[in-house]
Records
---
Amino acid sequence: MAIEHSNIDYSERIPNNVDLSGNRRLRRALESWQPNYIKWWQELGPDRSTGFDVYLRTAISVERDGWANFGFVKMPEYRWGIFLAKPDLDRKITFGDHKGEPAWQDVPGEYRAPLRRLIVTQGDTEPASVEQQNHLGATCPSLYDLRNLFQINVEEGRHLWAMVYLLHAYFGRDGREEAEMLLERHSGDADKPRILGAFNEPTPDWLSYYMFTYFTDRDGKYQLAALAESGFDPLARTCQFMLTEEAHHMFVGETGIMRVVQRTCEVMKEVRSEDPKRVREGGAVDLETMQRYINLHFTVSVDLFGQEISTNAATYFNSGLKGRYLESRLDDDHRLTDSLWPVHLVQDGRIVLEDWPALTAVNERLRDDYVKDSQRGIDRWNGVLESHAVDFRFTLPHRFFNRHIGTSAGINVSPHGEVISESEWQAQQGAWLPSAEDQAFVGSLMNRVTELGKIAAWIAPPVRGIDGKPWDYEYVRFN
Ligand code: BYC
């Protein structure tokens, strides 16, 4: 096994804490992938950002005090590298058929294909999100927001590196081919789309962006947490470290939407009306439109958990490849041989909860954790409405609303959870999902604001800035 450190070696062409200098073959393979990555970043990464000095955090160690080291970085000279959480040499597999056996430091031959598939699926989402967001710099509401966009983009790029490292280090030639493919599929590409649905949807404006970072990055949190339990130790340690970075991405979404809500409440006061038309005329996003954006982004993200009843998921769990959320803290046999789990299903035109073998329901269980967690932001945004004495309340739609994956795909379900006819769906969907007109209106608000201390009129400034700096600090210098 390679010697691994908590400190990251920045003297290397590829910064790392996995002793790349001691493995020349691997280093050479990764160094030959690197120019393709940079080319991809130049073509499909954040538009027209070259030469900007951006106040970014870069990990210098995987210790608690080392992963958020702040300073100005000239784009695109960010040092993408390979960082794994510190090893626990006694780590044991905590679930499935191999529970109690030492964690694997190499890929077990019999699980090679499903493991590679999991890593590729995870890896595919990272560059996809950068592609989805690549034009947002042109309409940023403030320098603070522009900086956060770039921070998230460089970290998603690093998360791609994390998966590419695993493919190169552990999967030989087919791993190298998969790593190439990660740069060849593109979000929304008709011929070579990204693997998962949500990553082919456009992120056309900043409201969508905050929704994406709140709802879709939260899928990332749960999927990474499940992979951080993996019996394949390098994957577990990679995901553990990725999770530390993920929290900021969801923070950007949660506080971003909160700031939009705040501004809308202020405008309601200014125009003395809660009428969506008046709110729009006042230059803010009406709450009804925000609810439709919530409905869309929640549902495409809920799709990312896969089928409710999944033999794939059961195999991943049995094999010790992918666990449940906080697996080791759960109080059960961690094998799920006899246990049951209540699963939402559609039967005879009605939505029912039915007990199924817990082993086949691990996707749904992870989705349950996700749905509960997603409610937290809704409650916080409603807190803003309450503090302004506005009666409107945001809600999460029913998990079967607008689904394309799982048992309710192809069935029309209202946000309240009623199974409805196709004609009813057609009549109502404009009230439930963002219409072309909503998108055009939100798009019309998106003007680039980069003057120091200024912010777009449709969003309130953040309560605080980054790394103890004021919110109106010069986070991006254009030169
Ligand atoms: N779109 O048995 P099932 C992140 C396919 S986000 C398209 O349920 P499984 C991030 C499925 O592949 C986290 N296809 O499958 C966030 C399967 O295909 P086959 C990303 C879908 O494997 C923001 C079939 O349907 N990480 O990190 O149990 C910014 C049967 O389904 C979808 C992961 O997802 C879909 N939504 O579950 C940046 C973790 N859902 O076998 C980054 C790795 C299902 O019939 N992936 N299918 O050809 C997994 O664990 C699993 O692949 C899934 C699917 C949970 C996604």
---
Amino acid sequence: MSGTTEDKVTLDEVVALCKRRGFIFQSSEIYGGLGSTYDYGHYGVLLKNNVKAEWWREVVQERDDMVALDAAILMHPRVWEASGHLEGFTDPLVQCLGKCKKRWREDHVREQQLGGEDAEGEIRCPECGGELSEPRQFNLMFETHMGPTKESGSEIYLRPETAQGIFVNFKNVLQFARKKPPFGIAQIGKAFRNEITPGNFIFRTREFEQMEIEFFVTPDDAPEWHKRWMDERMRWYTELGIREDHLRLREHGPDELSHYSSATSDIEYLFPMGFSELEGIANRGDFDLRQHAKFSGEKLEYVDSASGDRYVPHVIEPSAGADRAMLAFMVDAYDREEVEGRERVVLRLHPRLAPVKVAVLPLVNKDGQPEKAREIYEALRGRMPAEYDTGGSIGKRYRRQDEIGTPWGVTVDHQTMEDDTVTLRDRDSLEQTRIAVAELAGELERRLAEPWSSPKPR
Ligand code: GAP
């Protein structure tokens, strides 16, 4: 009766679903849109909140070696001198000298046309085939001014990563959190990059959210903790339903490493455009704390009160993008299948990620069924995100819920009015079971707490 079709999801299909169901809109759409910035609608907000909540639960709530932080986006400009961003946070920019005059990232064009970011050989404009200019280094930080005048010396930057807010608070946290290495600081927040070639929907945008951890360890333990964090972070994605063979860990080559890193591995997901970075896990050594100590004049080290030993901790940094993770979860969940001769599009999201957990639908709009359904919905919504829907045929209402990834549907029918039972429909198997209204909330909570894996083909 039903069966998943071949697993080839295009980005266009996911973009269309996001638009159709109000997950994501182009920013400032009525003015023609602003390049690569997006607004999140109702289901987009709920889904991204669930991604962030699952990260928070895993890395803060369920550990006792992590504390939370929410640092300001605007920081002292010296931070970016110390971190190396002012000098080194650049991409090589080339401009078309032919017809279209478009700007490109040289390394991306080399990769596309010659098979490697550093491959030697001639490259041409990907749009019009024109000649390209010599590359120049372009700084990705957005600059603005603090105060009422744009005078020299008032320049500040929108942070291009949340990480630096953590390093500059190392001393504060150490003082108040009563932690000693190994311990970490976790933060979720907006970051901004004036990307030369953003694209692939919310994969690379100019404004995005990061979920970052800086984990402070003794220098000797850094390699072991680096490995541990790679395993932990891979597990997080698979436990939330991403199919294992659509994920891989890729170690950076020496020429690819950032200025601060001695070793980095990326968790990559098989997006429709190929395996691409989802999260970076770097061993940053003591680079950041030493730099900030040098530029601020503060001592940024750990002193063991028992032994008197003092040292600058090394840092392991698992750094993920909330929007990029959301895109990966959506791509991995997107499915179409034929059910009784009709195509159904369904988001097979992990129930904990699903924006809405249960939809309560009266079969018909009469005979007391809408009132009964509303009563069940009102009892459920205090315990989990729920929806009540009376608009259109039951089939149409279920198609809508399938597309937003609602794992369970409750139908109120004529039998409900006689024996206080409802049918409970499972999004993935389409199985329908009869259950007493009194047992419904408990049964849904039991299902929500169960492990879940994707029914899509490996
Ligand atoms: N603090 C380290 C750091 O920022 P990064 O690899 O530049 O490292 C970490 O960024 C993560 O942030 C990436 O793996 C990606 O998920 C997300 N990210 C980076 N740039 C992004 C962009 N322009 N749009 C959306 N997400 C982005």
